[in-house]
Write the structure tokens for this entry.
Amino acid sequence: MKRRKFLKNSSLSTAGIFSASILSACETDKKHPLVNEILKPIVIATWDVPNATNKAWQVLSETGTALDAVEQGVMIEEADINNQSVGKGGRPDREGNVTLDACIMDKDSNCGAVVCLQNIVHPISVARKVMEDTPHVMLAGKGAELFAYEKGFKKENLLSEKSKAEWIEWKKTSKYKPIINIENHDTIGMLAIDRKGDIAGACTTSGMAYKIAGRVGDSPIIGAGLFIDNEVGGATATGVGEEVVRTVGSFLIVELMRQGKTPQQACEEGVKRIISKNKEKLDFQIGFIAINKNGETGGYCIQPGFTYRVYSEKGHVNNKASSYIST
Ligand code: ASP
């Protein structure tokens, strides 16, 4: 995507090196009951985020778990100040505060989430701590921030000079109108299957740019922005979160796969469900990606322009998702 500047990546050459090591690792692992012909490990992410999928692939290649892979993968984007849709450098709400939402879900259906978190670069890691170190699923606002400090996370200013300057410019008109595929539809959702065949997912965002203070979208909501069922597969979303919440989009897609749909068919059905509730005004973007237990993937969106990255032993590819509205 033009919107982000990424370091030149060495994805295809590293694909060769990693696939060789994975193939030999699988050779020695033949007795593992879950290792078979199914395509794994594999990672898939919303948008063209080669550095993030590359990181996740490294973790998976070094026998890491899917959970570690998705956390470390999306952390790359959270730390990238040039990515104005997640983590540090994210676009603020209309008061000028960067508020972050994230969730994570593992193979045992454990999950953790943070909403409206300020001053912490890696909301995904705080979400993981909520999942692993508390009896709760979701922490919000100041409570989430205090919890993060307790867990050793450092306080940092997240508002970059660029995002601040754009916000000051935006305030001149204060018009809240999301622009399709332009910067305010950039949640990073990531799904991975590790060598054991276990699935995990992560989703992280700064939300819609210039949102009302306190607004939370789909991205940290388990079932809406992300859902994993280790017996079936996983799904995650990007785009106008209010619409995804209304149909519990990611849960719907996993359930459709449970009923026998491929990831591609399930994503198409998920998008069409949203369309059926919005017949009069299809002026927004939604993109879904999904993966099933066999390592098959799919992606679909309303408007053209959504892409998703897949990294497996077959290579590291940015896929153009097919769209309901054609170009
Ligand atoms: N889904 C996000 C939200 O509604 C926005 C995005 O995908 O950028 O907060």
Q: What stands out?
A: Residues 11-28 form the longest helix (18 residues). The radius of gyration is 18 Å.
